[in-house]
Amino acid sequence: MKMSVVAGGNGLPGLDRVPIWFNDPSNWWGPDGLVVRTREHLLYTGTVVLVAALIALPLGLLVGHTGRGVFVLVGLANGLRAVPTLGLLILLAVWISDHLQTKTDIPYFIRAGGLPYFIAALIVLVLLALPPILTNTYAGVQNVDPAARDAARGMGMTGFQVLRKVEFPCALPLIMSGLRSATLQVIATVAVAAYLPFLGGLGRFIIDGSQVILDLKYGYPAMLAAGITVALLAVLADAALSLVQRYVVSPGLSGRNSKRSARRQIAILDAEAQLADA
Amino acid sequence: MKRIYLATIAAAGALTLAACGSSGSSSKTSSNTPPPGGGTTAASSPASTDLPTEPGSVTVGSAAFQENELLADIYADAMAAQGVDVKKHVNIGERSLYLQALGDGSIGMVPEYSGSILYNLDTGASAKSSDDVFAALQDAAASNGYAVTQYSEAQDSDTISVTKQTADKYHLTSIGDLADVAGDLTLGAPAQFRTRADGVPALKSVYGVEFGNFTPTEAGGTVTINALKNGSIDAADIFSTDPAIPDNHLVPLEDPKNMFAAQNVVPLFSQDVLTQPMKDACDAVSAKLDTATLTTLVAKVYGGEAPDKVAKDWLAEVGLG
Asked: Within 13 Å and on the Cβ side, how many CA atoms surround B79?
């Protein structure tokens, strides 16, 4: 009308609707509430990262260890980064749902009829998660100190033992950072799954909301709220993974000083100071 | 202009002004409701017989989607052929924007859809059938300073569509035929279809149809049409002028009880712009246009032809060019 239905230059509901949205319990609970959508979002993300890790870790370790196929691997990883996610998603969804007819559901995870579409989303997102894990794993193994590798061989370790006992642990900081960036990327992108029928995740609020953007319950405020939740999940997931990293990475590598090594460093500094005095 | 309008609304007792102005409020409460009490000051006879007889001039606007742009071209070119001085300003944006343009005089006419514009102008409206909606719209338009000319048979409304195979299998011709079988079927529709008054609740209350399963989908679009064809979903909410309907031999189920409000194409004019020659030209177009024709023309535009060319070709074909 002569007056736009909403305030603000862009004609959208104001940011102050977002806390109001979060304050309404009816937006949190129920089969389409924030809680269920967040659970779906995390389950999708976890599945994608797990599948991507199962493919990329062995491949990255192998290439890093043998030094063969580096050119192919780097080319592949860089090529995957250029895949248009949404276009491939729709192509695969159409193709897979034509060839796989099933109404099977997986409780708490995939609703009846959603399996063909989930597979499409899974493939696309795995392709997205592969490059960081692949390149970091390979680079991690490649950058292991050659002296450590030689020492291991000198002790009579087999190639596999070198990989398992020396190269993999030494590469872990880089591998973990690959997993972390893959996870972040997937958490942020898994929202595209909501383009497909039967699938959930926080993208549901964003994609459905864009069709009724002025609606105060389902429109722009819900889209913003979901966006904020995705950002929060990303931060929390990264924090959780960094915690995991603290525990799995050998203290000798991470530079996290135990009390003893801190004391030792101080002792070294003291010794140097005394030498300088002398 | 805005201040005068606000004052009017305030005087009419719309107490939600502060909310509208600062934080935004739902489209339901703040759209342009006629003042309570019948809008005695603004209302004039909707079917004025004494329109100016000179052709006059008009700027035709349109919403920002291709079908509406095509309709704007069709009506505009038909009026131009009758000697009206026509300018075009198509692709303006969504409804609140082009109604604002219509209100401040930057455009004089925009092609509308009867149900949508009625419910926008009069939130208390309840009319459903084409005739009832048009009658109510004439009043609602007049009390807002607008005028509508004759509506066209062509409708861009929601439909519940199924594939030919599904229709044959369950002997479906109208939505009501789904009542006995819907429990085993899946409906795909935009997410808000599940809660909005003329969505899933109306399916149940008007036709006694309850689908066993529901999934949010786009209204039309590759994924939805494909899901319908491969049986992922059994019925879908698709717009009646979507070229996917004829292309895929889909069957839009009839809606004899008007669960969906009629959405006839209707030219919406600013009252002080409309002249008799404009009305005659628009009425002639409306008389020739039906849903199947509009669908065919929309398909040409989707296929890459310029809307204006499609409009001119069709007008020439039916002798209105």
From this structure: 33
Put simply, whether A196 touches B (Cβ < 8 Å) is yes
Cα A10 from chain centroid? 33
Assembly ipTM: 0.77
Nearest-Cα distance to chain A for B276, in Å, is: 26
Chain A residue numbers with beta carbons less than 8 Å from the beta carbon of B226 are 93-94, 97-98
pTM higher than 0.80: no
Tokens for B174? 């109208």
Which of A94, A208, A212 lies closest to B222 in CB terms? A94
Three-state secondary structure string covering B206-242: HHCCCCCEEEECCCCCHHHHHHHHHCCCCEEEEECCC
> The dihedral of CA A149, A152, A156, A162: what is its sign?
negative
For the stretch B82-128, pLDDT in tens is: 999 999 999 998 888 899 899 999 999 999 999 999 998 998 889 99
Alpha-carbon distance A266 to nearest alpha carbon in chain B (angstroms)? 60
Each residue's pLDDT tens digit, B173-225 = 999 999 999 999 999 999 888 888 889 999 999 999 999 999 999 888 889 99
Q: Which residue of B has its CA nearest to A14?
A: B23
